Amino acid sequence: MTGDGAVRRIGGDERRARLGVRHLLAPGLRAKSAEEVTRSLVALHATDAATVYLSTAARLTEPGFTEVERALYEAGSLVRLLAMRRTMFVVTRDSAPVVYAAAARAIAVKERAGLLKYLAEGGGWDGAWLSEVEEAVVAALTVHGESTAAQLGGYEPRLREQVVSAAGKPYETRQNVASRIIRVLAAEGRITRRRPVGSWTSSQFRWAVAEPLSEPPAAEAKAALAREWLAAYGPGTEADLKWWTGWTLADVRKALTAVGAQRVALDEGTGYVLPSDVEPAPAAAPWAALLPGLDPTPMGWQQRDWFLPDEHRPALFDKTGNVGPTVWWDGRVVGGWAQRPDGEIVWRLLPDPGKGSGKSSGKSAGEGPGKEAVAAIAAEAARLGDWLGDVRVTPRFRTPLERELSA
Questions:
Q1: Residues 355-366: what's their mean pLDDT?
Q2: pTM above 0.85, yes or no
Q3: Which of 71, 72, 206, 298 could form a disulfide with 146 if both were Cys (CB 3.0 to 4.6 A apart)?
């Protein structure tokens, strides 16, 4: 990190302008491919399978689920990884080695340790037994190709063994070992998720043998990932990068130093940008967006006051901190949206903290964003409804406003 001389101040307006441009949300900046969208955001949240498609569609010139399927399952240019904060992400194949070495490898080590303890305590199986089962699973996938967990249990019966948890207690449970073993194999990059069973909204996947990743050294990878994050989300604070990556503060500071990050002044305190990114960023034209739950943009920072008022959090987040579907106007979260059982996309503007407590909806501007914003948001809602068509999407992590609107 360097900080000689005067430190430039970057206010909320400039940060919001950067967001619209770099996250491909401003007019005229939408992408033509799923790979371009993913690169612009570093990684797409994939805990909820539908988020990958909805996040991409919001940024494509021609939205549709087939473009994501092409990249994930035909070209193989996008891959899924258990990475930052022990969360599932979709990243480009080119960046996968960096993400794995910087954030996923350490998680895989912890996952394996937890699995060995789980197997020993629940069934008396050791590491040698686990290795035999894992080799059998990989061999079965090599012979049979893409397979579901149930099919793998048929090829390798030991996957159907059960572990007893809390034995003898009222809440005693039994669980097949398959899900835990498959999860660790995937975390280590030995197998990978392929097409889901059912539609693109399904979270039940087929599995296949993964192509090996050529990993860079951890320190080098962490610097590369910090550089990608700063390019997409900068300026940001140490706390933001620490939260997003799941690293220690020491790791964050080493990575920022390695990329020569420049200090800037933010409302939250000291922030950082890349050395080539200190100069003022051009403003973008006003833009509207309907982003899904767990979209990378609202989940890109720990400190969100500059685009999401605290007053909106109870309506837009679940109890564990997962953001739900959000409505955006010109770099700010101004409301939420949902899909009703009949397919209608409905949305509501939340009260503007700076303009009193009046409420507004998709039918009336009320207080808060004006007519231009309401018209632009309505157009985005219509665009989303058109491409979803007969598909119905229910967020995996439901929030108070989404539940209310979808009822």
A1: 40
A2: yes
A3: 206
